[in-house]
Design a protein that fits this description.
- By secondary structure, the protein is of the alpha+beta class.
- Helices cover 15% and strands 29% of the residues.
- It is globular and about 65 Å long.
């Protein structure tokens, strides 16, 4: 089973819902460092997904089982890097929300990790897409309004200062600032709010625009938290406004962990 790197990025970033999951269900004490996507949902239209699993020398495991019933492992594929494998899983239509236990097998050696299927908390019958009648207001969050000064400069980011005198630097706008100005946006007649990507862009410089994603499963802490984003969505809905999430599937920032792992390419299927 051959896949290109960018197909992999698309698979792990496939749905808008995935970005709303920051808590990785990873058992680090068992050697698993990361799983993408970090969880899935029952009752989704797509019931076949690929898990990207990162762990020390994990490519030595050649098969996998899972309990309880509801998830089937269809394929286990290794990468050139010994620290990654890919699990293609099938989720039954009858699968229940639960914490599932996967067991990776290498001869008489095993490794367990947990993976959660969650219950969807939205009514798909109430989803309302955009159409030609919608006036869409596009915002670059870093450039709009600063509602939280505490997240302007965070030490754990490569770019950790505000440079308002630079067109390429960060200016400090955030999700709270947008939420504080929803009345202004609504009064303009906008029915839909479109934000530049809110995902983490932990680049050394010039990533204020959001189009250099380094983690598809985290909101960039310099513009807010996952709760800030969810609250903004809810506030828009209360004003009968829609919101568009801008996702980038065909290119990440060069600090993305998959981009930096240059040998992360599938080479064979067991």
């Amino acid at each position: 089973m051959k896949r290109t790197f960018y197909n992999l990025i698309f698979i792990i970033s496939f749905t808008l819902k995935l970005i709303l999951s920051n808590n990785l269900n990873v058992q680090t004490n068992n050697g698993i460092l990361r799983i993408d996507p970090p969880n899935w949902w029952v009752g989704m239209q797509n019931n076949e997904i690929s898990l990207v699993i990162k762990g020390t020398n994990i490519a030595s495991y050649t098969s996998a089982t899972v309990i309880p019933e509801g998830i089937t492992v269809a394929d286990v594929t290794r990468a050139e890097s010994n620290d990654y494998i890919f699990l293609d899983i099938l989720i039954s239509d009858n699968a229940q929300p639960n914490m599932y236990t996967f067991t990776l097998v290498n001869g008489n050696k095993t490794m367990n990790f947990k993976y959660e299927l969650k219950k969807r908390n939205i009514d798909p019958n109430k989803l309302n897409g955009i159409n030609s009648s919608d006036l869409i207001y596009l915002i670059m969050p870093d450039r709009f309004a600063n509602g939280n000064l505490k997240n302007d400069a965070l030490a754990n980011f490569n770019e950790n200062k505000i440079q308002k005198d630079s067109i390429l630097g960060r200016h400090g706008g955030d999700l709270t600032g947008i939420a504080n100005h929803l009345n202004y946006i609504s009064d303009l007649g906008a029915a839909t709010l479109w934000l530049n990507p809110v995902q983490e862009n932990n680049q050394p410089k010039e990533s204020y625009h959001g189009y250099a994603i380094t983690d598809h499963y985290k909101v960039d802490a310099r513009i807010g938290t996952l709760d800030d984003y969810k609250n903004l969505v809810e506030s828009c809905h209360q004003k009968n406004m829609k919101i568009v999430m801008d996702m980038v599937f065909n290119h990440p920032g060069n600090e993305h962990y998959l981009f930096k792992k240059t040998k992360l390419r599938m080479v064979s299927s067991f």
